[in-house]
Structure formats: C-alpha cells, structure tokens
Amino acid sequence: MSVRFTTKARRGAAGLAVVAGLALGVVGCGGGGDDDEKPEASSSASETSGSQPSTQENESDEPLADLKGPRGLQLAVTAAERDSGGFVTVSGDMKNDGAKTANVPSQLSGNETEIIRNGRSLGGATLVDSKGKKRYYVLRDTDGRPLTTTNFPALKSGESLPVFMQFPAPAAGVTEVTLQLPMFSTATITISG
User: Fold this and answer.
1) Region annotation Disordered: residue ranges (predicted)?
2) Exposed end of the chain (fewer CB within 10 Å): N or C?
C-alpha cells in the first residue's frame, strides 16, 4: 500500500511541475503591453527626427487592397512585407462599416482543428501565387497557434482593429499574390521588400 501511495504522490508532483511550467511559459510569452509601446516609440522617434516618411507609412495612407466581408466588415490591407527570415507579413485594419455591432465570423479561422482549438483568428487566410501555382497558408507556432491576430472583440459600428497575418514567403521573384480570406472578397496585393 505504501508503494501505491508513493507512486500516486510522484505522479501528482510531476503533474504539478508540468502545470507550473506551462503557466510560467504562458506568462512569459504573453508579452504584456511592451509590444504596444514599441511602435509608438518608433513612430514618435521618426516624427521628432524630421526624416521623410518610410514606404510603410506611405502604404498605410492608401491601402494596397480593400476586402469586403459579411455584416459590414471590411479589411483594408496596408502592407505586405517580405523579411530576410523567409516570411511575408500582411497587415491592415479590420473595420466595421455596418450600422450595427458585428462579431468577426469564426469561419475566418479556417477549418483546421489545430487552429480552431486556439480561438478566433485569421488562420483561414491564404496567399496564392497564380504564376507559380502555389498556395501559402498562415504560419503556426510550435504549439499550433496561428501567427495572426487572434481573439477578436465585437466591433461597434465605425470601429476598427489592427490585424496581421504571417505566411511563408513566395519565391524571391514573386511580387504579386492574391490574398484570400473566408467570407471576404479576394484581392491582388504587391509584396514589398
């Protein structure tokens, strides 16, 4: 009987250690408000230095594309940037142009079980290279979470929310791709960088 008790106690201690480790990992990856403060600091630095606006700032004034969705939702794509790590980050603003409060549809997450399990996201988005005949899906981290904006609040009429999606980069020569998002119109966007 003491062997059983010892085995149960060890299992309980191991389980507690795993839960504590996961909790610390989640807290460490949460990021807090630091991410929100970094863009403000860099934008204020460029304003005070008197430098010319960057191409990204110019792109935000005029969207690369406007995708119309259900219930008055609209996605204005402001940037599609290729980075040296082999990724393309598409960013923009999700806006409610309707008269009533709108919830971002769960269909935008796509239909993959692993992505749906992590809450509402833009995990169903794809980039399509028509010339190369390839489709690129939203990237996922090692825990299966999509590298997109997640957990959308309900958007009141006229309210907007900044969003992003990260994809594997198409071949270096590819600059035009089609952005597809479930329930939204499609649009051709130009990748910079």
Assistant:
1) 31-67
2) N
